[in-house]
Amino acid sequence: MRRKFIAAVLLSGALLVAPVRADAEPPPDSAGFAGRWIENGRLKIAVTTDAAAARVRAAGATPQYVQRDQQQLDQLMAKVDKIARQQSNLRSWGIDPISNQVVVKAVGGSDAFRGTDGVRVESVRTKFQQQAGEVNPGDGWWPGSETYCSVGFPATDAQGNKHFLTAGHCTNDANQAAYGAISQANRLGTSNVGGSRSINAREGDMGVVAVTETGWTTSAKVNTYGSPAVTVTGAADAIVGETVCHSGNTAPNWECGTVSAVNQTINYGNVVVEGLTTTSACSQGGDSGGAWLRGDKAVGLHSGGNSSCVTGDQDNSIFQPVSEALAKWNLTLLTGTGDPDPDPDPEPGPRTFANPTDYPIRDFQVAVSTVKSTAAGRTASPLKVTVEGNHTCLEDLNISLVSPSGRWYYLQRYGGSTCHPLPATKTYSVPADETAAGTWTLRIGDNGPGDIGTLTGWSITV
């Protein structure tokens, strides 16, 4: 079932310091809109009318004028889909909001769409496959006596019973025993109970495992294999251009990349699946069903990808949007806020980290500076960011903080009719709840002409 994503997304402009609201509610009327994506940390929305552009600006996002609106793109997609079903060498096809076209990826190219306005054919070298793999140490589950898959996201039904979501091609057998270890050891429950809780067809690649055995519990904490666990706080839809990470059963287990396309039709050879998301992150056999996240938000269940990672391929991995799976079986995602800290200061080490290096702030360029935190546990909320420097027009600047998980927080947004100088020292409070350790990045973009400055240093207290 192809999902028709409404293109407009409204952002809250009331708070100066806030994470990107990529999952905010869209307006009910989608006329004049044609898709969305993240570009240099900013949400951009394709529009075809001045009225739509005004609504986007009022919401705090950036409009991009395009030729085709969403209805025209959907009609073009339907035409492409009809032709595509008759082809044998296509890897994927779907709408690209950035180019305002339907993009078809074909092994060795294709002439089937020659002369079709608005369709771009890209030649690729590899076919996708739904992944399976040999046994390696890690956090996985085993469907019967088959090769292993990966646990997606735990959820509960209306009666409070425990389940977890995973890939449909891992749960295709009805009432199959599910194990927590190889060789049919440590049974945890049953997959595809009654034969109605698994789909691996055009509608999607998603399934449900019921956790029924004594002693098994479920948790909202995602295994990141060596780094502190990420606690899932909710679900969201992925957006082109944003950073996502996935956890799976095959080494290196935790891998991140960029969303390259959403709502794509994928040809796995043995099955065609609609509505999937592609990313540049690598994945391996055995990762199927695993968790995809945007920061601490659940976005998908691993579906497949290249048989091995291809350098430079923006479509290395594929996932099924998790929200559709939750809605399909009326399940509630298990979420948490992290465990309370019984010790007010379990790690007395430093919590403030700084970078004193000077970086010029030039017109229409971005100054980028990083610091590496070695602090344990979660961040304070709010955490503190202190920026030191000079610039003749603060209103020209977009200042943002990027966390180790890839989540963006805007400290200062570009805009204003009167220029004021950037204070020599300015401190921002950021309402974050992240893993403290890792590389934090400060980005200062100058969006206006005629004013210059220098970032002379900055620090973060986590």
Could you walk me through the main structural features you see in this protein, from its secondary elements to its overall organization?
The longest helix is centred in the first third of the chain and has 15 residues, at 70-84. This protein folds into 4 domains: 18-65, no CATH class; 70-124, GMP Synthetase, Chain A, domain 3 (2-Layer Sandwich); 129-333, Trypsin-like serine proteases (Thrombin, subunit H); 352-461, Jelly Rolls (Sandwich), CATH 2.60.120. The chain is 7% helix and 41% strand. The chain starts with 17 loop residues before the first strand and ends with a strand. The model is unreliable at 1-29, 132-138 and 338-348 (pLDDT under 50). The protein is mainly beta. The protein is built from 3 helices and 34 strands. The strands form 6 sheets. Strands 9, 10, 11, 12, 13, 14, 15 and 25 form an 8-stranded antiparallel beta sheet that branches. Strand 19 and strand 20 form a beta hairpin. It comes from Kribbella sandramycini. Its EC number is 3.4.21.-. Keywords: Disulfide bond, Hydrolase, Protease, Serine protease, Signal, Zymogen.
List the helices and strands and how they pair.
Layout: E1 18-19, E2 33-39, E3 42-47, H1 50-58, E4 62-65, H2 70-84, E5 90-96, E6 101-107, E7 119-124, E8 129-130, E9 142-143, E10 154-156, E11 162-166, E12 176-181, E13 185-191, E14 198-201, E15 204-211, E16 221-222, E17 230-231, E18 234-235, E19 243-247, E20 254-267, E21 272-279, E22 291-294, E23 297-305, E24 317-321, H3 322-328, E25 332-333, E26 352-355, E27 359-361, E28 366-373, E29 383-391, E30 397-402, E31 408-412, E32 425-430, E33 438-446, E34 453-461
Parallel strand pairs: 3-4, 6-7, 18-23
Antiparallel strand pairs: 1-31, 2-3, 5-6, 5-20, 8-23, 9-12, 10-11, 10-25, 11-15, 12-13, 13-15, 14-15, 16-17, 19-20, 19-22, 20-21, 21-24, 22-23, 23-24, 26-34, 27-34, 28-33, 29-32, 29-34, 30-31, 30-33
